[in-house]
Structures are given as C-alpha cells and as structure tokens.
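Changelog-adjacent note: as of this version, every example in the card shows the full chain rather than a window. The one below runs 349 residues end to end.
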Amino acid sequence: MPIYKRGKNYWVDISAPDGTRVRHSAGTEEKAKAKEYHDKLKHELWSESRLDKRKEHLFEEIIILALKDAEDQTLYGSKKGYAKYWLAVFKGRAITSIKGEEIARKMPTHSQHKSRYPLENGTINRYRAFIVRAFSLALKHGWIDHRPYVPELREPKVRVKWMRKWQARDLIDAIQSDLLRRIVSFALLTGARRGEILSLKWENVDTENRNAMVTAENAKSGRARALPLNDEAIRILRECDMSCEYVFSVNGERLKDIERKEFNRALEAAQIPDFRFHDLRHTWASWHIQNGTPLMMLKEMGGWETLEMVKKYAHLSAEHLNKFVDSVTFLTHEDELKIRRTKNKRATG
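Full-length structure tokens:
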C-alpha cells in the first residue's frame, strides 16, 4: 500500500528503482497532500536513478560535514565561530547556487564581537579555509562537480621581533612597578602569552614538580598544556601574593591587562624600539633556538599547533649547518694551487 494512515498522519511506502524501500511519514493528516508528496518523492527517486539527476543539498549539510571533520582538532571552538558566520550568510541555499565570487564578496572584514575591529588578512583567510573545506567535503561526497574557487588574501611576512639578554635586563630594570616587572620576567622565562599569564591560578601551579598548567579554556589553541618552570620562574612566583586566587593580581583582584603605558615607557628608557608584549614570547623562543632546543621540543613547550609555526625561529640558529661549512674552501690551499700551476706551465712550455 503506497499511502496509509498511522496515527493522525499519513505515511508513504515507495520502492526505489535500485530496490531500496523508502517508508516514512508524509507529515500531513490530509490524504490528498500525502498523495502529492508520494508522487513527488517517487519522481525524484526515479530521476536520480534513471536520469542521473543529483539530489540538491543545502548549505547547512556541508557545514555539518565540516564541523564533524574538525571535531578532534584543537581549534574546533574557532571553527564553530566560522560556521556560525557562514550559516548567517548562506543558510537555506542549495550548495550548487553558491559561487566562488559570491563567497569572496561576503568574506568577513570585521570581528563578529561587539568591538567590531577590522580583521587581518590571516584571520579572514581562516574563514575562507573553513568554507573551502566544507565544499571540498561536498565534492568528495559527490554532491557537487567542482569546488568553488575563492582567492586567498596575501598575508604579511611573519614578524619575529626579539631582544638580546642584556636588553631584557635593561628592560626589567627600567620597569618601576614590581607587579609588571614580575609579569614581564615570567613571560621571558616561560614564553607564556599575556592572556595565559593573567589567567593563571595558584591551583594550577606546582612548584614542587616545577610546572604550571595552562588550562584549555585559557590556551589559545584550546588545548591544555604544562608550562615548565625554571628556578628563576619559581623565584618570581614566590614573590607574588598568594592570598588571591590569581597569581598576578592587584589588591586581591585579577588583572584584566598589563599597564601598557608603563610598559612602553620602560621600552623607551631601555632604548628598545618597535616592541610589543607578545614579542617577549618571540624572545623566549629565539633564546631557546639559539641554545639548541629542538624545534619539536619548542613546539610542545610553547603550545604551538603545528611545526610550521615554530619554523619561523629556525633561522636564528646555524648550529646544525656549521658542520657542513668546511666542505667548500679554497683560500687555505694556496700552496697546492701554486704547485699545480707550475706543473701546467712546464707541461705546456
């Protein structure tokens, strides 16, 4: 029986051309509407089978594919944000109706938060990468014939600004506030990001085992990691107020940000131009590379997601190249060259 009633609603029962059976509710209590739905569904199944007509898929379906694909990734939280943005743009659209030029035109230019600050090209490219991945998965599933082309924005070269140890000493000496001096010193000793430092709680500090824990909600990557502490970092922690929940606090309250004016005054006094707080992390990484810390080890210590992110520091160490430099020399072989020249002259004379 192709149409029958179960409860209040009518159901349809159809045998598809490939032999499969389609049986589900028509979603209506009216037999005429159920018959109309039955005929439409049967026609679509026949078209797909005999005319090789592809079923249309909605944009929401490929967003689900992309989110499932990213479930185990450390930046899953960020990708949910990208999904939310693109759903607001294309929800309800058939994926075959969305072209590359339209995606490029509707790429976000400002933050989706209340502050609405302009986005850098690198951030915009991450929105692009998410939707391109969604269409790539649709292509793999056979839902589309080709993936829309969306041009990637040019990103500036990676900025690696760091200072030498004597400059770091000058900077610390130029900071007047004890609290800011501790924060800057801790950043240089651990490579922790500003947000990770200011959100650090005493319950996540273990001086006995010489580490602190950056929790998942406070880590940029969304993945918790241990923060190794050397003797100097532990000494800095012991100077801090332990009566507050947060390690770096003022009057028992958590700090929202550092004193930027004071930090900039200290940089000027130490004669360190064009330097930002995040460059303290670059400095920490640069010192490690110069002292022979392997890139893979540095990646784990610093909480970077990929090795590519750490390779920007590799040029600061030439230690692994030094053993090869003596392969090409010639000035030290002057006596040997004179003998050969003399033999050549006699042979041709």
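Structural remarks: The chain is about 45% helix and 10% strand.
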